[in-house]
């Protein structure tokens, strides 16, 4: 009787275990799929908050120059065209060439140099030890835009982007108005941190310092 019971229970327990295992695998795959979809939706939402703001600023600059200095408007339109292409097409990729991202930033800063001429001094430098690096699109522009947004009139803005041995460092420094930086509507850096958590978890360090000037430092492993 004991042998018969054992022979009956053994295959029953075995197939029960197999059923539970496949059930667990199906559930785990479903959870992973849901998590992936949620991550993609969050990234799309965060990117949608960045794109219009950057582009509208550039359009305002072109509008002003088309009235005051029409001779310089064509060059600005070409720069805006490059940035539109980057935002509308290339930024939909998971990662883009770092050189294209820096070109996007070059154009953005060129617009700001025009807009802040005589009001702010902009020191901007970039350097990379290789050409093949890739990065998630529209990450660095948030830090740079924040520096312009919160800097005071007649101040200096320092922007330095460098890459060495796969580690990207982006440092922005500017004089600032404490009230605007503490504003609850200043969501740029909060969104940046969310994107970094989603895309580069445990591979970055984002530090802000408001001791004398407003300084944002990002260290990012591009691998």
SSE order and pairing:
Blueprint (H helix, E strand, L loop, with lengths): L1 H67 L4 H16 L7 E2 H18 L4 E9 L5 E2 L4 H11 L4 E10 L2 E8 L3 H4 L6 H12 L4 E6 L4 E8 L2
Parallel strand pairs: 2-4
Antiparallel strand pairs: 1-3, 4-5, 5-7, 6-7
Helix pairs in contact: 1-2, 1-6, 2-3, 3-4
The CATH class is: Alpha Beta
Whole-angstrom Rg: 25 Å
Low-pLDDT residue intervals, each spanning 5 or more residues: none
Following the backbone from N to C, one meets helices and strands in this order, namely HHEHEEHEEHHEE
Count of spatially separate domains: 1
Q: Termini, distance in Å?
A: 63 Å
Q: How would you write the strand order of the largest sheet? A: 2-4-5-7-6
CATH architecture: 2-Layer Sandwich
Strand-pairing-aware structural class: alpha+beta
Assign a percent range to the helix content: 55-70%
Largest sheet: 5 strands, mixed
Shape, principal axes of CA atoms: elongated
Mean pLDDT: 79
Share of β-strand residues: 15-25%
Q: How many individual helices?
A: 6
CATH level-3 fold name:
Heat Shock Protein 90
Task: Please tally the β strands and state the result.
Answer: 7
Supply the CATH superfamily name.
Answer: Histidine kinase-like ATPase, C-terminal domain
């Amino acid at each position: 009787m004991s042998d018969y019971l054992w022979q009956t229970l053994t295959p029953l327990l075995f197939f029960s275990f197999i059923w539970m295992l496949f059930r667990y695998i199906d559930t785990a795959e479903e959870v992973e799929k849901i998590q992936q979809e949620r991550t993609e939706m969050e990234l799309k939402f965060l990117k949608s908050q960045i794109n219009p703001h950057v582009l509208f600023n550039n359009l305002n600059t072109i509008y002003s120059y088309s009235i005051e200095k029409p001779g310089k408007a064509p060059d600005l339109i070409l720069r805006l065209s490059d940035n539109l292409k980057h935002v509308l097409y290339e930024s939909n990729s998971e990662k883009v060439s770092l050189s294209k991202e820096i070109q996007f930033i070059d154009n953005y800063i060129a617009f700001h140099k025009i807009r802040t001429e005589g009001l702010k001094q902009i020191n901007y430098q970039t350097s990379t030890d290789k050409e093949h690096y890739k990065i998630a699109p529209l990450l660095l522009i948030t830090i740079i835009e924040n520096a312009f947004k919160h800097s005071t009139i007649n101040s200096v803005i320092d922007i330095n982007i460098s890459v060495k041995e796969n580690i990207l460092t982006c440092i922005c420094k500017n004089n600032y108005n404490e009230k605007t930086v503490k504003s609850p509507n200043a969501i740029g850096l909060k969104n940046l941190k969310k994107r970094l958590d989603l895309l580069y978890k445990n591979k970055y360090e984002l530090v802000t310092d408001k001791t004398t000037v407003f300084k944002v430092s990002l260290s990012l492993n591009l691998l």
